[in-house]
Amino acid sequence: MGKTAGRERAAYRCEECGLEVAKWVGRCPECQAWGTITELGGRPGITVSAGPVSAPARPIAEVPAQGAAHRPTGIPELDRVLGGGLVPGSVVLLAGEPGVGKSTLLVTAAARVAQSGRRCLVVTGEESAAQVRLRAGRIDALADELYLAAETDLAAVLGHLDAVSPEVLVVDSVQTIGSSSVDGTSGGVAQVREVAAVLTRVAKERGIATVLVGHVTKEGSIAGPRVLEHLVDVVLHFEGDRHSRLRLVRTVKNRYGPADEVGCFDLTDGGIVGLPDPSGLFLSRMSDPVPGTCVTVAMEGRRALLTEVQALVAKSNSPAPRRTTSGLDAARVAMVLAVVERRGRITLGANDVFAATVGGVRLVEPAADLAVALAVAGALRDRPLPGDLVAIGEVSLSGEIRPVGAIVARLQEAARLGFRRALVPAGTSVSIEGMRIIDVADLGAALLVLNDSVSTPRPTNVVHLEVVH
């Protein structure tokens, strides 16, 4: 009797993560979201009978693959992160902070697609049609097949789809569109889920490539229910610093291509343009070596980017010396400084240490540890590293230089830009034409390079792009 009564009790489910609980609570115990627990309708245990199928099942080899073919957008860097372009019927979610350039990029992409003869519809819920028209004129993104509508109602958006019949749809943004059939305000959990579900279903039924613009929270995650990321086919993150023109589009999820690609863009007054070869963007302009600088090679997705790490060590006037970083993980830099002081026998206790990257790039991977250590040691000893040297390796707490991934791609990119020497972890059996590979087993062996360094100028074939800070 007790078990039967337990099964008949009303169940509740979290709209954010899908967790089912026996009673209502204000905060989900799984995802810690507030106000997302709702009652499930119906009784548990109801069976569903078989019904008609939309299409008969076929052997997988007989299913045509043309429906998943990519169609380029006209922006190579955007096509790179999409896996080749937009797939008819696919739904792409592009998320980023306000003002980073999401609308500018998508209006430009829609104009390029429209100029190729495919009809595009841009639905804006955040700006008026006149505002978008002014931006499009400024960035030369006007085309006869590019249609624009300012709507915030889902039914009106579907009406525009019937009237225009586009091949590509851009909705800016999904949080501003609401449905009258669902309770709650626009941008709420229920509204965002309903709008995304309806637009996804329409995109699949009509073969419309759809791009949804999404907001992000203060923590940098996509705003709205987690189910939003599961509904769409591709999730892209648009990253960039307000004080820099550099913009990165990073793939988080992609059902039609690689999920680890990164596209580089330059945001200018005339619009946003792709950077097919951004190497050298994160290096300083000084040709002669300077104490406290070291070049490493970072991997952004599948792309190798040369990045310069700079350090400044100055005597501190405070009983608690400062440790300041910019573009680097502060916790990891603190760990590297401790290893340098203990394993490298370098005293840093009474000095302020400042470490930063060049060009606004952010380095979080362990492969930059060795470059940070050498830059700090060089700044303290006032000895520059050779200008044609790159340092790649993870520094462990024991002082060991540990291997990192994609070492061949990193070294090939450095050699292409004229660097002729590379410090790599011991045991790296790689041969790169025109480059001397120096194996170092621990931090002590790496620091010997400072003692034997010769003032070698920086390679001159590195192309620089001016970035305004």
Describe this entry's structure for a reader.
With 469 residues, the protein is of the alpha/beta class. It has three domains: 9-39; 69-274, 3-Layer(aba) Sandwich (Rossmann fold), CATH 3.40.50.300; 293-451, Ribosomal Protein S5, domain 2 (2-Layer Sandwich). Helices cover 25% and strands 24% of the residues. It has eleven helices and 21 strands. The chain has a nine-stranded mixed beta sheet with strand order 6-5-7-8-4-9-10-11-12, with helices on both faces. The protein is elongated. The model is unreliable at 1-8 and 463-469 (pLDDT under 50).
Keywords:
single chain; 469 residues; alpha/beta; Rossmann fold; Ribosomal Protein S5, domain 2; nine-stranded mixed beta sheet; four-stranded mixed beta sheet
What's this, in brief?
By secondary structure, the chain is an alpha/beta fold. It has helices at 2-8, 76-82, 102-115, 129-138, 154-164, 189-206, 227-231, 330-343, 369-381, 407-416, 443-451, and strands spanning 12-14, 20-21, 37-39, 91-96, 120-124, 146-150, 168-172, 209-214, 234-240, 246-254, 262-268, 271-274, 293-300, 303-315, 323-326, 351-357, 389-391, 394-395, 401-402, 421-425, 436-440.
The CATH architecture of the largest domain comes to 3-Layer(aba) Sandwich
Radius of gyration: 27 Å
| Cα separation of the termini | 71 Å
Instruction: Average the pLDDT over all residues and give the rounded result.
Output: 86
CATH-assigned homologous superfamily of the largest domain: P-loop containing nucleotide triphosphate hydrolases
Which class best fits the helix and strand makeup? alpha/beta
Q: Stretches where pLDDT falls below 50 for ≥5 residues?
A: 1-8, 463-469
CATH topology of the largest domain, anyone?
Rossmann fold
The tally of beta strands, per DSSP, is: 21
